[in-house]
Amino acid sequence: MKITIINSERNEKRYTREELEAFVAQLSDGTYRQQYVRDFNKEVCFAAEWVKLNGELKAKSHNCLILLSLENLRDLSTVEEYKRLAILQPYTLLCFMGHDGHSLHIVCPYTVSDGHLSETALLNAFRKLHYIYSSQLGTPLAEHEPTFETCCKASYDPQPFYNPVAIAIVVSSQPEDSPEFRPMQEDISDYNYPEEIPGLSLRNSRMRRFHDCLDAVIEKNSDLRNDEEFAIIVLEQLADGCRQIGLPQAWCARVASFIPMFSESLDTNAIESAFNLLPYSPLKLRPT
Fold it and tell me: Model-level pTM greater than 0.90?
C-alpha cells in the first residue's frame, strides 16, 4: 500500500508516493526530524495515492484509511499514555506522535460493505471511529471531518506502533447515524490543573487564565452586550472555556459568583449549574 508525501516549496506542492512500511521506518529513524532543520513543510496523506498529471491533481488509488488526531496534549508523557490506550484498540493500524510533540495521530483501516467507495463512506468511517476512540481514550478527538486529501505533518517518533493486521471497520456507502461522544465530568485533582505561569503562584495563575478566558468571551460576544441574556451567554461560554483549559470547576463557580455581571442577574445555583456542579437546567435570569 502506497501513501502520499506532500512537500510544499515556493507556494507549490510536490507529490511523491511511498510504501506505508517505508514511512513507518522513517518515522522512527529520524528521517523527518533531520529534514525539519530546513524543511517544515512535509505532510503525509494516508487516504489516497495522489499524482499530478498535466498540472491537475488526481487520485491514482484510494487506501480506505482514516486519520484521527488528538491535539493540544500537555506533554510527552500524556502523548505516550494516550498512545498506549490507542494501541489496545484492534482498529489501530498506525499510531505515532505528532510533529509538535503535543499531539497523537491514529490511522485506521475501513471497508465498505457494498464496495462503493465514496466521500459518504469516508465520513461514516470517520464518525464511527471517532466515537470509538473518544470513548475508549476518554477524551474527544479533533473534529476535523475528512476528505481524501486530509493530511498531517510528517513527524518523528522513535517508537511508532504499526499493526499491519489491524481490523478494518465496516461501513456503508449510504449515510449512517453515528452516536456522538459526550465526555463525562472528571473528578478534579491536581494532575489536571494548569501549570503555573512563571512568576505567579498557582492561585494567581488560575486567576489570570480565568480572566483571560472571560475577556475573550466578552470580546467574542461584544455585539450582544445589549441582549438581556448577555450574562447567560457569557457564563455558558466561560464555563466551557474553563473546562477546556483544565481549571477546577468548583473554584471557577466560586470566582464567577463574585463577578457583578453574573451575581446581579443569576443566582448561585444557576452559576454552579453552568459549571456542571449541579444537574443541568436551562439558565434563567433572576426575577427583577
Answer: no
